[in-house]
Amino acid sequence: MADAQAAEGLIDTAPLSPIRERTNTLEHALLKRPEPKDLLDRGILHAPPGVAAAVQLKQHELEKSMAKDALKTHLAKRPEKETLIQRNILSASSAAPQIQAHQKELERSMLEDSLKDKLAHRPQPAEVIEKGILNVCAGSQPMRIQLSKHNSSDKLEPIGVFEGR
After folding, report:
1. What is the value of pTM for the model shown?
2. Which one-letter DSSP state was computed for residue 87?
3. Fewer CB near the last or first residue (10 Å), C or N of the chain?
4. ∠128-133-136 over CA atoms, to 5°?
5. Per-residue pLDDT tens digits of the chain, which is 165 residues long
6. DSSP calls for 36-53
7. What is the rounded CA–CA span in Å between residue 52 and residue 59?
8. For the chain, first and last CA: distance in Å?
């Protein structure tokens, strides 16, 4: 009995014909094979079956040259850099694009600081009158006009006149 058990461990249980299994897997793969139309739609095949490879190659070259020509005409019609800068499409800055936003923000804050400084050192109305820059009729005081912005337009209109400070 020990000899029978030892003999069973040595027995080859593999199928007799591996060729038959390969044939079955090949048939199975061929059944699952996608249709040529699906391959065309997915861009795997470039031309329907039956079209010669030379014709496919010429067609591909023609499409490529047509795309090059279209690109050349669009580039020829593109406006010059100076025109784009004048139309405020491009900035005149030579800084890298990543830091242009920070550069703009810095320029704006510098301008704001400059205006605040100039307003802080602005002369009083009496000084301007004394220097003859502002002319005022005899006996009258400088007047302020209060302006209002209507919702319907961006035009400013006076809503009242106040004398002096």
Report:
1. 0.37
2. T
3. N
4. 80
5. 555 555 566 776 766 666 666 677 888 888 888 988 898 889 888 777 788 888 888 988 999 999 999 999 999 999 999 999 999 888 888 888 889 889 989 999 999 999 999 999 998 888 888 888 877 765 555 555 444 444 555 555 545 444 544
6. HHHHHHTTS-SS-TT--H
7. 11
8. 126
